[in-house]
Amino acid sequence: MTLLKTCYHVWRLGGQRGFFGRKRYDFGKSNLVELGQVSPERPVPEHIAKPKYYFVRNSPSSGEGRPEIKTDRQIQGMRDSCKLAANILKKACTLAQEGITTDEIDRFVHEEAIKASAYPSPLRYLGFPKSVCTSVNNVACHGIPDDRKLMDGDIINIDVTVYFNGFHGDCSKTVLVGNVDERGRYLVQSTEESLNEAILCCGPDQPLCVIGKAISRFARHKKLTVMPAFLGHGIGSFFHGPPDVFHFDNDYPGAMKPGMTFTIEPILTLGEMDAEILEDAWTAVSVDQARSAQFEHTVLITEDGCEVLTVPD
């Protein structure tokens, strides 16, 4: 997930207003999430191949430049890493139950990656302290796992990326914890559907901007809001790179070409588009405290369409 450079602290375009004042939203009923205690970094065994940023802190990717067109060998490497990430995510989602802490989910994802001889990509990326992102309720993305226990009615996004045999595979899913209210269930289902709508637009020589147009159109139809500060990204031997994939309506240049791999990862919210980064420099929350949901796949553009790489067994 890439954060727009203009949103270092707050992305605030101003609330949507109608003739009689600020637009009213139905947030439903949910628990407000605050930061908890973060446990120490989990160790990575010596034999696990590590990305360069494990040893030297990296700088953010600009998203600029020519997207990489992968060879057959690189594509197979992407298939392997993405399959592993998807299988770990599938298992991790079963842990999302009342009373489980997000730190326990982090431990599980970390251990599953190590067991598969893979590196949990979020760890030390730009200084991120844990091995997975866990974003609950009003946390839009980049939530740091901590000692907060999941509660009945929560929704949680689990974002898994692994570095396996030299390639990163990236995917995420939002799941329900216990008895989630109707608005929360509607948000989660609609966000997954928006991702599927975007994937249907993908194919050779299609403009990249059709992704954002499809998601925006679908969100408006569902009376939800796209949070525009957070982007999809190119991925391969690098975690983040070109192209930037915008999830809002845009006419930015760029076209999909066979051999390109990138993520599509829209965040939709029940409220307004504004987000802010908390004092841990990572956790992005909705300014109006509305819940959001996110789903993510890594896709490969092929000669006759696209292939979703992050499908579990």
TrEMBL record:
Which molecular-function annotations from GO does this UniProt entry contain? initiator methionyl aminopeptidase activity; metal ion binding; metalloaminopeptidase activity
Known EC number: 3.4.11.18
Q: Top enzyme class of this protein?
A: hydrolase
- Where a divalent metal cation 2 binds, per the record, is at D170, H233, E265, E296
Q: What is its cofactor?
A: Co(2+); Zn(2+); Mn(2+); Fe(2+)
Q: What does the entry list as the binding residues for substrate?
A: H142, H240
Q: Which SUPFAM superfamilies match?
A: Creatinase/aminopeptidase
Q: Name one GO biological process term.
A: proteolysis
The record, for HAMAP family, names:
MetAP_1
| UniProt xrefs under PANTHER family | METHIONINE AMINOPEPTIDASE, METHIONINE AMINOPEPTIDASE 1D, MITOCHONDRIAL
Q: What is this protein called?
A: Methionine aminopeptidase
- State the organism of origin: Culex pipiens pipiens
Source lineage: Eukaryota, Metazoa, Ecdysozoa, Arthropoda, Hexapoda
